[in-house]
Design a protein that fits this description.
The structure is a single chain. Helix content is 34%, strand content 28%. By secondary structure, the protein is of the alpha+beta class. A hairpin with a 2-residue loop joins β3 and β4. It is globular.
């Protein structure tokens, strides 16, 4: 099977400054995180940072899912952390 993203939920991990989301390969759940600075240049620690990061994720979700799919196709792990280098 191929990786899909049927669940649109995502959450912000303030400690790691990452947005977490999941993909599915058949019955297997694959955990992804994307570094907030990879998708937004909003300053961390501000009152609006979380909302800004989540909005940036929503806007770029198609390309984020594409990058996640490519990373998964290369190594097929169960956990991934995507950084700005993955989007270059």
């Amino acid at each position: 099977m191929s990786l899909t993203f049927p669940n649109r939920s995502r959450s912000y991990d303030e400690a790691g400054r990452r947005i977490r989301f999941v993909g599915h390969d058949g019955m297997f759940q694959i955990s992804f995180s994307v570094a907030a600075d990879a998708i937004s240049d909003a300053p961390p620690g501000t009152a609006t940072a979380e909302a800004t990061y989540l909005a940036a994720f929503d806007t770029a979700s198609g390309s984020i899912h594409d990058v996640a799919s490519k990373a998964y196709a290369r190594t097929r792990k169960s956990i991934y952390v995507l950084t700005a280098a993955d989007f270059a």
